Amino acid sequence: MDHFGQIAARLADRGLDAVLLTEEADRFYASGFHSAGTDGAALVTRNGAYYFTDSRYIEAAHRHVKHAKIDMVGRGRGYCRLIQEVVEAESIRTMGFDDAYMTVADFEVYRKALSCQLVPASALLTELRTVKDQQELREMIAAQRVAERALEEIYNDIRPGVTEKEIAARLQYLMLHYGAENMSFDPIAVSGPNGSMPHGVPSEKPLAAGEFLTMDFGCIKNGYCSDMTRTVAIGRVTEEMERVYGTVLSAQLAGIAAARAGVTGAAVDGAARKVIDDAGYGEYFTHSFGHGVGVEIHEQPTASPGFDRPLPVGAVISAEPGIYLPGKFGVRIEDVVILREGGCENITMAPKKLLVL
Length: 357
Prior knowledge:
Helix content is 34%, strand content 22%.
């Protein structure tokens, strides 16, 4: 799967003859081929596409990159040289670059080496990547199913005495075992007072009866991310724990009900935030309702108080309100939804009823 054609079709509208993609996620989106860090460059022109990489990836690139001319960098033929050859062959005058990622130092290297004007173009890739096509959605659903299989199995391991690190490590193993290529991010498994930190780091702390355990995790399948959070109780729950959990679940359902194409991200966030505010926990909901998910775990658009633009059809966002009580516990519940014209499609199938293990 690649998006060379979709990118090329938008160049004229942006006044570009070509766009150079050096950042890992944009490069993968264009080519459908993953190479780490800065070990590659994709160049899309109005007339075609090119993929350049080094000897470590060239064989794999020939196997996986379609619809592009592939060439290898080497001594005396670095990225700038290969790109400049295309600039000259196609008379390129204006070339976009991924300004949201490229360092100033790298920009200066390309600016001096290429005989064309470099123009910021990250907005073009952001716009394209925001709206997922059907194949992208299939990959994201497949990644979600892998994570859900891991969740079903991890329940067997949750008991007093097991450490947060052991739960996090087991989640990673299970997702890889069931077909993940990698993790979307380092899994979070935090319990008791540690749960009040939304992005707490798993520690040697053992799980204990009467605590919540929050697990936030996801995996990559065919280049696309999944993301989910479930909070479960160990042994027993207090009235306060039940009240907070019920509030978070009600807030999540309210936000999902408001999520659809055409409304602003702020409106979706506001629908969930009102539930938490009305319950008296407003100061303890410290992040936004959701973020975009795709090739990267955090993409555009967002369902946040500051996102005042309409959400587009085909965008994929997380739905993850939370309440975090310092020194006590935290609760977060997260699904992933696809935005449609009249509502949204929740692609997360795992149950959300409070589970006491």
